[in-house]
Amino acid sequence: MDKKEELKNNAENSNLMANSTFSDQIPAVYGGGGGGSGFFEIPQGYLDMMSFQDYGGASVFDLLQQPTPPNLVVEKLQIHPPSTLEPPSLPPSVSTVTETPEMVNTSTQNSSSISSSSNEAANNVDQENNRRSAQENEEEQHEDVEDDDQEKNTTNKQLKPKKKNPKKQREPRFAFMTKSDIDHLDDGYRWRKYGQKAVKNSPFPRSYHRCTSVACGVKKRVERSSDDPSIVITTYEGTHTHPYPMTPRGSIGILPESAGYGGLGGGDGLGVSSFLFAQPHYQQQQLQPYFHNQTSTSSSLSFSTTNSSAHPSSYSHFLQERRAFPSPSSSLLRDHGLLQDVVPFQIRKDEPKKEQN
DNA sequence: CGCGTTTGACCAGCGC
DNA sequence: GCGCTGGTCAAACGCG
């Protein structure tokens, strides 16, 4: 543990890395090979009911089929308008959107309405996203998905010949922030933690998780915002190559509210939160019960995407992948890809209209 | 015993 | 080239 502290301190003391600015962050959120992030302040329990339309690489608010739901307090939102793309027309609610110049490539400095917390959080996410997306955009086109396995195979570990494929491919990523005391949000999949690292500019370590499913190379990073410890930044990378587990960790999809999963942040200390979405159980409900009346705390959710493949419908990619594996209850569990890990379909509009091709 | 976590070390990429 | 950081590996360990 002492060493851990050391690492942290090192990271903190290290000023080699310039203070990350958004300027060179994710190039874009609107599809085209970019990413973005948003930050919503959402009443606790609302997440369970939240849903967005197919995230086809549009703006964050395009995720919201309808204007911001009544109980959804859009506190902060960051998006990354691509320098080369025109921002999509945004719904009325988007008036609350703050397009942060510094998040655009051209950026300078500014951003009035973005709080430091979300700023920082998104920053963390975007930082890496962008860093890679640049190089990945080129590389990824050459290779295909299997490389994760191949890496391991080719990694004949004698001592530590971790020579990986130079053209390491990065899968599309999807990041979001949640305001929660709990780090590891249970999205229904089973994850194995394979690493933890101290990150610079943050006193909180970042943990690395991998889907335990064989041949599924989906990874997940979890970290806390250095600025606002209550914010958990979760980044998914890759696409699940297997059906959505109906009984992950014992009880996905059949979690009664009484089971203590009613809302976010309700639990404490445990490694798993009630961050469960797309439960058939919820589908019965209407958009009414936003709240589960847990506590007065609120949960928040934000997005940051990196479309390394430069496809406008990057996230649709997820969705399609997931649809390839209709589950027994697929009729109920509309497949929304990783998004459904994050956003309960209740609020997503199930209309297939945005399923661009 | 199987599975998941912890942890120290290694590697690659990047900036200076 | 060097140092830093992020990402990953895998042995050791813990837990049920």
Automatic annotation (TrEMBL):
Cross-referenced Pfam families: WRKY (PF03106)
Listed Low complexity bias regions: 92-124
UniProt-annotated stretches for the region Disordered: 1-20, 81-174
Comp. bias (Acidic residues): 136-150
Residue ranges occupied by any WRKY domain in the UniProt entry: 180-245
Keywords associated with the record: DNA-binding, Nucleus, Transcription, Transcription regulation
GO molecular function terms listed in the Swiss-Prot or TrEMBL record: DNA-binding transcription factor activity; sequence-specific DNA binding
GO (cellular component) term, any one: nucleus
Compositional bias segments (type: Polar residues): 10-20
Entries under Gene3D superfamilies matching the protein: WRKY domain
Cellular localization per UniProt: Nucleus
Signal peptide: none
Full protein name: WRKY domain-containing protein
